Amino acid sequence: MKTLFSFKTLFSFAERLAGPLLRISLGLVLLWIGSLHLQNPQSIVVLLSMSLPFLAFSTFVYVLGALEVIAGVLLIAGLWVRYVALLALVLFAGTLTIFVIAPAVTGFPILNLTGQFLLKDIVLASAAITVVARDAAMHEAKRAQRTHLASRSGDHTLSPMNSEGTQVNDAAPGEQTHSHPA
What we know:
By secondary structure, this protein is an all-alpha fold.
């Protein structure tokens, strides 16, 4: 007897949904945090003055907020995903350095409210790593598929074309561009 509910179907759906949902969620978080930094940089300036005083300027927080907003929009739009997620990883890693540089600010290892607030960046950094890895794997799989299809067809139908519609061969002189011998 076939049931309407199947774990296999559910897991398959979750697998298809996980990547885009994580990317969009990370983008929304960055957009939200960046917008707050742009709206009121003072709380971040205070935090920086206690931990990284050489960065404790409103201008720095505005730049940080703008980067976060831009990164959020690009992630939501699905543009330059692995590169933007790497930028996000750097932003989160920067925040996490406060635990090492100024543990008194976070109350580490028994976290105060500031430490609890900053601890979320471990999960966000993990999400950024996952988004980078998934996007890189997807692009590598597409590249391998194109290479495989081109080598099977024995021609360069999948090679780039120039503006005149002729095939562009960007291989070095003497280098074969497909798997068949010359």
